[in-house]
UniProtKB/TrEMBL annotation:
Residues 138-342 form the Calcineurin-like phosphoesterase domain. The lineage of its organism: Eukaryota, Metazoa, Ecdysozoa, Arthropoda, Hexapoda. CDD domains: MPP_PAPs. It catalyses: a phosphate monoester + H2O = an alcohol + phosphate. Keywords: Glycoprotein, Hydrolase, Signal. It is an enzyme of class 3 (hydrolase). Residues 1-24 form the signal peptide. GO terms for molecular function: acid phosphatase activity; metal ion binding. PANTHER family: ACID PHOSPHATASE TYPE 7, PURPLE ACID PHOSPHATASE. This is Purple acid phosphatase. Residues 367-427 form the Purple acid phosphatase C-terminal domain. Pfam families: Metallophos, Metallophos_C, Pur_ac_phosph_N. Belongs to the metallophosphoesterase superfamily. Purple acid phosphatase family.
Amino acid sequence: MVPNKGQVLFVGVSMLSLLSSSFATVRYQPEQVHLSYGEKERSIVVTWSTGNKTDSIVKYGGGDQLLQSKSGSCTLFVDGGHKQASQYIHRVTIYYEDPDSLQPETKYYYHVGSDLGWSPVFWFVTPPMNLTGWAPSIAIYGDMGNVNAQSLPRLQSETQAGLYDAIIHVGDFAYNMDDSDGEVGDEFMRQIESIAAYVPYMTTVGNHESAYNFSHYRARFSMPGPYENMMFSFNMGPIHFISFSTEYYYYLRYGFKMLVKQYEWLENDLKEASHPANRTVRPWIITMGHRPMYCSNKDNDDCTLVKNRLRYGLTPLRLFALEDLFYKYGVDLEVWAHEHSYERFWPLYNYKVYNGSFDKPYTNPKAPVHIVVGSAGCQERVDSFNALPPWSAFRSSDYGYSRIKVHNATHLNLQQVSDDLDGEVIDDWWLIKEMPRIKFPLAEQMTTEENQIIEPSNVLKGL
């Protein structure tokens, strides 16, 4: 029997379908490799992604051969968009105290993957044995996207030249990681691999991460603590860093209880960090939140309002006000982003300047110092300013990023790098504490009825 044309066509289509299913696209090759600090001070987490499920292995060594190996786990992440695009996110933690594991002040080479595919070889350098005597260098910025990420090439060069011990990104990644069914997030993570695979890349959540209850941000990064990257703290030499979500104040539909929980967590963390015994070991407390308390930009953002939600609290009861809390526990430096500009303020509390002295405002300041570092580069361009207010010390709309160098228990240096001016340092200043200080001068007066903050536990009882 001779088959007719319809039968031939059916057989052909069936064969193509069978071949397609037999040779379905698989993606075992690791990508989006990045580092972060782990739960313990002497640990490091290696994170990467694959399209399909594989083993999670890091091979590493202090020389040319990668003779040491550590295994971890992977988690399925499904984007909330129409395609429901999925990937597996792998995590491996290496603890310095493991036998024959990581030695201090050593350059380690590593690659990640499985027998089905390996990444290129990257490297990282471990901190010294004496962490309290360590003088770490950090690049810090916010608001960097895939499009117009102007600061990224310079950061790539400086990071791979060994200028930084860590990088901190204070919110707003990719613009936005969920766009195009998560493809924009994938591309962003591939782009930052050139810096994040060499030094810990620590993060703070921003408003551009809000889609699907911040799912991309919570899934893609690996910050310490139990709160899926939304709030955490870590120590780095003489610094205690605290990262928290300003977005809990604005996306209340995702759960008012998380705002209550964060405030309780913040106060407990600050109380422990400012205890005299701990403050002696780590004298510097630096907070990172995306939306600022203060700014002088020409827009209608909340930071232009006197009753800013973060600073003043949720009115009219002033629930969860952060300025009083940070002042009470002696936070030295508050780092913000969101505004696409750089701005440094005088030591500031409740819109009043509390300089250390007329000639040396940042020597023994009597209030925290705020900076805004949101000009790394994105498609929304930079922001302009209103007239200079008396509490703003320096500002610039140049694209760029900041460098923090903590030299010791008394001296912290901060520089602002202008990428528009080919890497020129346009602001260079020192924050100095010549004497031990646990609290600011007015902290003892903050128990008055006017400044009393409602206890979060009392709010929770009513929910």
